[in-house]
């Protein structure tokens, strides 16, 4: 080897070593960076799958089956009616000299309401009384003469019949005189008045309407299938539209013994004490008759029941909605009794049932209470909250 070439060989030896070390370091760095990227991508993929799984879960609201008292009842609507009502009519004709009561006034049975002109009736009483006295004197003289055979027995009998007839006419005239004072046939409240002082009243003309508000009744036409469950004395609750926020208690007064063949219903009459309450005749009320009570029944909200056939609910199990057939019992208000299919503490779906199928993944959410919304801080002008 020439000196020149060996000299170049000595010079290229260290340079080759440096280039070799640089290449090795670059390869090692590339390998390390490539491995780190793979692990990061795997972690991101796992988190994405979890987020996708959460996104696929259907948000629902749920409630827990619990024990509480529930009553079996029949509900209906009816109009309140007074137990006693009377249309007061004039039993004789005459001019109204005095009207003694007004609408809304409480009256008692036998209390005078109107006084009519009694002059004609008094004259009729006086006339019949005079004729009666005349016949009685004639009859007494005939009885004395019949023993002397101066008057026949047949004439005496005829006089006796005439006396009895005139007595009846006298009583009738006295009765007509009593009709000039119109009295209340029942106790109650004057609901309407159709007469004024000075009016001429014809016989049998309605002049007052009296209703007894001390006892009010409501009549329900109940389907015949309820005949075996309802009976007299059962408690009744009434809610009147005219008196919101109030409930009134009563009881079943009587039940019709027959079923109407045309409608398939029977009449149930409930009684309420109207004198000590605010109830009035004519009010429209919603009535509930409780015929059985369960003190410790397992109940769920009515909203949990599915309306697609047999009674069933969606129970939340391990993050999934499982369709569970149930046997329902009594229903009261927003609650329904569950006799078979669930246990106390089971969680059932109450909102979001439409989007569910058996086995659908669900996420139970808690609705925000109105109080929490009211307490939330007001938003600033830029949309942020303080």
Secondary-structure blueprint:
Layout: H1 3-56, E1 58-64, E2 66-79, E3 81-89, E4 94-99, E5 106-107, E6 112-116, H2 119-146, H3 153-178, E7 181-183, E8 188-193, E9 200-201, E10 206-223, E11 235-240, E12 248-255, E13 265-273, E14 284-301, E15 312-317, E16 320-325, E17 327-332, E18 335-340, E19 347-351, E20 360-364, H4 370-375
Parallel strand pairs: 1-20
Antiparallel strand pairs: 1-19, 2-14, 3-10, 4-6, 4-9, 5-8, 6-7, 8-10, 10-13, 11-12, 11-14, 12-13, 14-18, 15-16, 16-20, 17-18
**CATH domain class name of the domain at 84-206:** Mainly Beta
Helix content: 25-40%
Instruction: Work out the strand percent.
Output: 35-45%
What is the approximate shape?
A: elongated
Mean pLDDT: 80
Q: How do the helices and strands follow one another from N- to C-terminus?
A: HEEEEEEHHEEEEEEEEEEEEEEH
Low-confidence stretches: 1-37, 369-386
Largest sheet: 11 strands, antiparallel
Number of strands: 20
Gyration radius over CA: 49 Å
> Which CATH architecture of the domain at 84-206?
Beta Barrel
């Amino acid at each position: 080897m020439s000196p020149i070439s060996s000299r170049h060989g000595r010079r290229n030896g260290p340079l080759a070593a440096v280039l070799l070390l640089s290449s090795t370091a670059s390869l090692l760095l590339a390998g390390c960076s490539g491995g780190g990227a793979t692990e990061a991508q795997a972690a991101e993929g796992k988190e994405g799958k979890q987020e996708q799984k959460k996104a696929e879960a259907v948000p629902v609201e749920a409630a827990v089956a619990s024990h509480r008292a529930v009553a079996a009842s029949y509900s209906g609507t009816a109009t309140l009616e007074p137990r006693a009502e009377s249309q007061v009519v004039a039993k004789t004709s005459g001019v109204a000299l005095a009207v003694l009561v007004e609408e809304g006034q409480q009256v008692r049975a036998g209390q005078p309401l109107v006084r009519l002109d009694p002059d004609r009736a008094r004259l009729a009483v006086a006339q019949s009384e005079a004729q009666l006295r005349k016949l009685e004197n004639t009859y007494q003289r005939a009885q004395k003469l019949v023993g002397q055979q101066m008057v026949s027995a047949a004439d005496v009998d005829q006089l006796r019949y005439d006396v009895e007839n005139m007595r009846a006419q006298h009583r009738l005239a006295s009765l007509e005189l009593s009709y000039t004072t119109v009295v209340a046939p029942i106790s109650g409240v004057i609901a309407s008045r159709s007469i004024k002082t000075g009016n001429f009243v014809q016989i049998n003309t309605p002049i007052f309407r009296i209703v007894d508000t001390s006892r009010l009744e409501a009549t329900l036409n109940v389907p015949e299938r309820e005949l075996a469950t309802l009976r007299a004395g059962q408690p009744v609750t009434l809610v009147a539209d005219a008196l919101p926020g109030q409930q009134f208690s009563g009881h079943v007064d009587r039940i019709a013994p027959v079923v109407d063949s045309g409608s398939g219903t029977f009449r149930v009459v409930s009684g309420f004490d109207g004198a000590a309450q605010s109830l009035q005749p004519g009010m429209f009320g919603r009535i509930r008759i409780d015929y059985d009570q369960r003190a410790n029944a397992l109940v769920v909200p009515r909203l949990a029941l599915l309306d697609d056939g047999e009674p069933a609910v969606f129970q939340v199990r391990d993050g999934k909605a499982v369709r569970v057939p149930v046997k329902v019992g009594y229903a009261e208000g927003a609650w329904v009794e569950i006799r078979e299919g669930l246990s106390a503490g089971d969680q059932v779906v109450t909102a979001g049932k439409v989007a569910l199928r058996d086995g659908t993944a669900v996420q139970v959410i808690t609705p925000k209470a109105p109080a929490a919304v009211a307490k939330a801080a007001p938003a600033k002008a830029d949309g942020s909250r303080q």
